[in-house]
Amino acid sequence: MDMTFSPEDIAFRDEVREFLATKLPDRLRDGARRTPGVFVEPDIGMEWHRILNDKGWVAPHWPKEDGGTGWTPTQKFLFEKECALAGAPSLAILGLRLVGPVICAFGTPEQKARFLPKILSGEDYWCQGYSEPGSGSDLASLKTSARLEDGEYTVNGSKIWTTHAHHADWIFALVRTDTTVKKQAGITFLLLEMDQPGIEVTPIHSMSGDHEVNAVFFSDAKTSVENRIGEEGQGWAIAKFLLENERGGSCYAPRLLQSIDKLEAIAREQPSGVNGAMLHDARFRDRLARARLEAEALEFTELRILAELAKGRSPGPQTSLVKLLGSNIGQEIDTLRLELLGPDALQLPLERPLYGNEAPEPVGSEMAQTAMGRYLNNRAATIFGGSDEVQKNIIAKTVLGL
């Protein structure tokens, strides 16, 4: 595999760096840095979303004809890497990276014209209705039902762990439309407006005190047949397409390596209490080095996927490998951060947000203020988007042939 970037790619990287240096406000960097949750709040994320949309760079993973950038896979990787290195907020993936590509791939021309422009502009904010109580890793066992009558679906059931449902205008949901066939064959992909009497959102607070996820209850909720993506019974195929984007659509390694760089810089100064700075502690130094090597190896895996994409091939089950490794390396970094910061990392302020004029004062440092929240929130990384066990089963079956 040729690891050398072309002169055109280097020029593109420099253009991205210049844009980030001039157009990414410090307040957004600060907000992203001080957010302990998995997702930044809409006031931070959507401001950056609109800046990118004004530039025409908000949807690099969409086809150009649907509003995408037309970038090569290499350019997409370089863009995400430079955003990570610059400390840019992560964009809300529910619209841009999940339902947007689904509509591009499976939607009718009318559905594209209706939904895609409002995703690009940020006018519509989306959430995902996949997991249910008892149907998480075994998603095909979902029970939320939809009955079609006179051109309208009536939806009953519930979804859980629904990220940012309390902010969302729309939800894309997997529902069961046929109970007489194999469970995967009876699932349909629907879009529903959130602001209607038949939908209730109940908050779920994480161990850190953050409110990112929710339970969503459907009681005779309504949506038009025109809001069905694909045909009845095609939902499972669409879901697999979407999950491939969720698990492998982003580059994990640059953000992981950036976090390791920050830990190493602090470890040069942080007292160990025994023998100088923490970086002189052999055990801590070895664990930090191992995390760096694993993150660098992950980056090579991501570049191999990039090479496959550049040849027009699907990334396939390798996305499960990226998800598995990225989640576990991230959790190890969280643990190292707590160990590095010591007692200061025990603080867990419940005020939100932790940025802005009314944010509480940190004890020790702003990194220490968010360290425990990051650790607690990121324990879910090996569950959401497909648990470690699911990823290992996919790898064993499709990669190793076991």
Description:
- The chain is an alpha+beta fold and 402 residues long.
- The chain folds into 3 domains: 85 residues, no CATH class; 109 residues, Butyryl-CoA Dehydrogenase, subunit A, domain 2 (Beta Barrel), CATH 2.40.110; 149 residues, Butyryl-CoA Dehydrogenase, subunit A, domain 3.
- 46% of the residues lie in helices and 14% in strands.
- It is built from 12 helices and 8 strands.
- The strands form 2 sheets. The chain has a 4-stranded mixed β-sheet with strand order 1-4-5-8.
- Helix 1 runs parallel beside helix 4 and helix 8 packs antiparallel against helix 9.
- The longest helix has 29 residues.
- It is globular, with a radius of gyration of 22 Å.
- The model has no long low-confidence stretch (mean pLDDT 92).
How many helices in DSSP terms? 12
The SSE string, one letter per element, is: HHHHHHEEEEEEEEHHHHHH
The CATH architecture assignment of the largest domain turns out to be: Up-down Bundle
Tally of distinct domains: 3
The oligomeric state is: single chain
